[in-house]
Amino acid sequence: MPRNPRPGVPVRGSRTGRPIMAALDLLGRRWALRLLWELHTGPVGPRALLSRCEGLSSSVLYQRLAELGDAGLVARTEAGYALTALGSDLVRALGPLDAWSERWSRALEDPGPREG
């Protein structure tokens, strides 16, 4: 199993260990962003996560939750898995990227001239 991405340590696609590259490596793993999204409204149990994420296997679910937990983004609570304060900060930080992706989608649908 690959080592969990950490700032200061080389990661996939980067030997620098820059924090942004470690974050992108972690978030680029299958199901990682989806799990964060499913947790953004509050704690969710593992069965509910599996039912919300069609095609997600239980082994990958627990692997991703462990990685996200090791990264300080998710914690197990009595009510299920929940975002930590750092995880909530990340979800808020992704808001501008989500808004940009919507603009990007509309721009690709528009047949007008493109810059370049």
Key words describing this protein structure:
116 residues; globular; mainly alpha; two-stranded antiparallel sheet; 6 helices; 2 strands
Structure description:
The protein is mostly helical and 116 residues long. It contains six helices and two strands. It has helices at residues 19-27, 32-39, 46-52, 58-70, 85-93, 95-109, and strands at residues 74-77, 80-83. Strands 1-2 form a two-stranded antiparallel sheet. Strand 1 (74-77) and strand 2 (80-83) form a beta hairpin. The longest helix has 15 residues, at 95-109. The model has no long low-confidence stretch (mean pLDDT 91).
Cα Rg? 16 Å
Question: What general outline do the C-alpha atoms trace?
Answer: globular
Question: Percent of residues in beta strands?
Answer: 5-15%
Helix run count: 6
The SSE string, one letter per element, is HHHHEEHH
Nearest-integer average pLDDT: 91
Strand order, largest beta sheet: 1-2
Low-confidence stretches: none
Number of strands: 2
Largest sheet: 2 strands, antiparallel
Distance between the termini: 42 Å
Helical residue percent band: 40-55%
Secondary structure class reads mainly alpha
Summarize the structure.
The chain has helices at residues 19-27, 32-39, 46-52, 58-70, 85-93, 95-109, and strands at 74-77, 80-83. It has 116 residues and is mostly helical. Strand 1 (74-77) and strand 2 (80-83) form a beta hairpin.
Write the layout of secondary structure elements.
Layout: H1 19-27, H2 32-39, H3 46-52, H4 58-70, E1 74-77, E2 80-83, H5 85-93, H6 95-109
Antiparallel strand pairs: 1-2
